[in-house]
Amino acid sequence: MIRRHIVVLAATLSGVAFAAVPVRDANGSTEERISRLERMVESRNQVQLGMQQQLSELELEVQNLRGTLELHSHKLEEILARQRDLYQDIDRRLGSGAGAVPAATSPAVPASAASNVSSADVTANVAYENAFKLLKNKKYDDASVAFSKFVADYPTSSYVANAHYWTGQLSYRDGDLANAKTSFASVVSKYPQSSKRAESIFKLGLIAEKEGQAEEAKSYFKRVVAEYPSASVAQMAKAKL
To answer: Which of 124, 134, 145 is nearest to 64 (CA)?
Structure first.
């Protein structure tokens, strides 16, 4: 009889002990699995954020290279234009009998050709190059200030559309969507011949997308494809669509 009570008591104690142990499976307790999943999700989010930042930096690097190419192309065009003016001036002088002009007066020829480029243009070009150097050297805050100042100081420069674009790019990089939108919109509306116009329209689409304006973003992407079908940015716009 006593033995029977001992067996029952032992079975009861065993059941209590068993109930006190948390439920486990082959991979650990449920709490451990949840904690492990949370760590995995957090790690993945950090990796994605890092990749996004790297992509933004790479995009800016590519834009820098394109800007350098455009800057060199612009300089080459100015040199060729000055050469054409020089040759035309020589032709006019020779055609009007200026060939009999004494040699002492010949230095006036290059001077007249050089006068086609005003001192204001030279100053504007230097200011733009200085701002672009800051951008290439990744001094983004200083570059943003320099480009904004360039827009204010040289509103008629041939580089002003590019300055608007770079101001927008730097604002977009910093998450300042309002100023980025203003700068890109200026390129689109004021400079229809700018080489930066297609990319500015695309960036307006990205900004609208970030702001949750899906239909507006879609209209910008469609506009890029319609107006610049052969541009490289059109392929990115198609992917967004």
So the answer is: 134
